[in-house]
Design a protein that fits this description.
Blueprint: H1 2-12, E1 19-28, E2 40-46, E3 49-56, E4 65-73, E5 78-85, E6 95-102, E7 109-116, E8 123-125, E9 127-128, E10 134-135, E11 141-142
Antiparallel strand pairs: 1-4, 1-6, 2-3, 2-5, 5-8, 6-7, 7-9, 10-11
Protein name: PLAT domain-containing protein
InterPro entries: Inner_ear_hair_cell_LOXHD, PLAT/LH2_dom, PLAT/LH2_dom_sf
Keywords: Signal
Length: 143
């Protein structure tokens, strides 16, 4: 019976399609009062689709680094990141240094910003590529 149920799930697509792990390395700037207690939201764009808006949880302390894992469907190569914060918590202002996204089998995608993230407004972060690679005509990093 178990084999029959498992076969039914596989045939009907009850299990999610092959997903991917997106490791975000979020670096808060070293400047005074750069850390935040606000709620941080992110959107990630890829060559085969986008990850929908989500809250990312971290400490976001001055000169700190937060590692955040997102497991979701495969959106292809990373092309863009949008970020925003709300005005909640004590000292909600936030100075973001950069976000690096690591995906197995792909070049790292680096989004340098080093500026204050405005309240309740999406900010499109510029894509930079690691040494030895460049942004191609399709908008993602490769060697």
């Amino acid at each position: 019976m178990r084999v029959l149920l498992l076969s039914l799930f596989l045939i009907c697509g009850a299990f999610p399609s092959q997903g991917r792990l997106y490791r975000l390395i979020v670096k808060t700037a070293r400047a005074s009062f750069a850390g935040t207690d606000a709620v941080i939201r992110i959107r990630i764009q890829g060559t085969r689709g986008d990850l929908k808006e989500r809250v990312i949880n971290g400490r976001f302390e001055q000169d700190g680094t937060d590692l955040i894992d997102i497991y979701d469907y495969d959106i292809g190569y990373i092309k863009g990141v949008d970020i925003k914060r709300n005005n909640s918590g004590f000292l909600p202002d936030w100075k973001l240094d950069k976000i690096t996204i690591k995906v197995a089998g792909a070049e790292d995608s680096i989004f340098n910003y080093y500026d204050w993230v405005p309240q309740n407004k999406w900010v499109e972060l510029p894509l930079s590529c690691p040494n030895g690679s460049h942004k191609n005509a399709k908008g993602f990093c490769n060697e």
